[in-house]
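Annotated sample (chain length 180).
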Amino acid sequence: MAVKIENQYTGKLPRNTLANIESALASVPREYLRGIERLRLVSVITEPRARMAAKGPDLPGLYHPRQGNQGPWFEVALTPLTSANKPFHKRIIPRLSFKGNLSAVIFSLVAQHYHLTLRHSVKRGSVEPAVRAYVEKQLKAWNEDQHKIRAKLFKPLQPTLERWSKSLAKRAAQEKKKKG
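Output written by the structure step:
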């Protein structure tokens, strides 16, 4: 059964939002979405418990687990992703990275659902690292699928770039240790 997308966003949706959501959901294995009823697009998440935990209205997504006879579902807030209520110069970067950020939010919600309901070997305390690892892996695969030519060009260079990033991170950690 396909995930139903409900649009309750008050403003105009950014271009190709529904197509981006469908492509992100299509790249996820079907068994990870088992039981998910819908994905609701809203302006801001209004769940009081979640707003207190996130300390403000900037929560981009929320997973609602199964309660009673109502199945699990996702809620995605578009205002934090687009920074719609900020000045123009602060909206440029979020607009350019909207597609990737939306996909990352969807992948994190899918990972939460998968690790909390379908995967019983993950303990409650280790869910967050498992979700992060899943999102990183899924985003990498989705990005390669979206940018096939670019991915093929940079595939041979990827190990070298990853080594450089590790060495830079290690050097930054050493500098941080020296400073205090």
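Annotation: The chain has eight helices and four strands.
Annotation: The chain has one domain: 4-146.
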